[in-house]
Input
Amino acid sequence: MTWSRVVIAVASVWLLLAARPTRAQQTPAPAPPTELRDYVKRPEPVFAWKKVATAETPQGAVHTLEVTSQTWQEIVWTHGLQVVVPKGVKPQATMVLWNQGGTASAGGAVLALQIAERVQAPVAFLYGVPNQPLFGGKTEDALIAETFVKYLETQDGTWPLLFPMVKSVVKSMDAIQAFAKEEWQFDVTHFVVTGASKRGWTSWLTAATGDPRVKAIAPLVIDTLGFEAQMKNQVAAFGKPSAMIADYTRAGLVPIPDSPAARKLWAMVDPWAYRDLLTLPKMLVNGTNDPYWPLDALNSYWGDLRGPKAVAYVPNAGHDLREADASGSKQLFPMRAIDTLAAFCKGQIFGKPLPTLTWEFTPAGDALKAKPGGSVKSAGLWTATSDTRDFRKSHWTKADAPAKADADGTYTFALPAASEKYTAAFGEVVFDFEGLPFHDSTQIRILTPKK
Output
């Protein structure tokens, strides 16, 4: 189930939704490509917005805007944009801006209202990222792959679809600011940009433009920074590239062709290429059973991320972040992800320091030490086993932490002894943050089988 479908499903029912580098960056990153910023800065004479409706519900108001963001490849992009305000909630200088595909819907409004109620601030949902279908009915990854091929054929730096996707978010920030000034006589100055999958990719790249209004980002299920390394990771873990990226393999984009144009293309759209610029707070949320990415994909780039950062792994969850039990039955809602997202956004909006978590795996590889900073509700060690490094179908189980932490507040988790299978483990601390559960994880360690 895609995230767009999750949002639609939510419509029918009631829904409740750290600075800790593990190693110092060794050398500055090369200067990133300029095509993304050049495209976003390009004037857009067609830009416009208007309010088309306001609906008052028992939970609050839903303002629906229509935004024209740009003309891309002679195609005018338009978007629905919902700004939701729960009852009794006042505008704040920072607003959550969620981007996704599809069109404005009742499902999106319900989800937005529930997030807004939890953070106690208005929330905006942007739709139509990207505008699709295009070019003979292509959508999603097939459409992105098509535009990548067009770039390789033309060397025209405006072709990669992620660029207009990013600009959709940037121009929607313009529209929200104008709307807030007109509707509320209030200045919205900053945004927490979030979204899932390729909309998480868009969130990363929106921050990479250097727009000072982007205060923080929360990319969901886009665990693939450093594309060249990640493609090798996939083959090492799965034996071949994931079937979920088949649109790119069929287009000859993966494995990455050994050509200057292909290397530049992937750098243009790789958040890792912009890593020295991405010093803002970052909340990453990933599923342990996501069929897109190898389990330990984060380890390839985590140490290169500068500034405040945190990661939450959702155990027994795939790309939709809904947890499954041992029988495979999934939760109706991705609650762990939604709770954590809401807590992170609340901290950014109201300027309240979030809980922190530092950790280290012992040199002997027999223990994980995790030291939380904040009000701890629970802590535990999650583990899973697999015959290979492919953990996509593995079931995760949790062992609770000792009743008390060490004298300095550190929890020490004994890692499983070596067995005939691969074993994966990560620590998790659940904090109480302003009445919201904030799930914070360590990196994942995969233990090799004994010989």
Remarks:
- Residues 150 and 156 are 8 Å apart (CA to CA).
- Residues 7-25 have pLDDT under 50 and may be disordered.
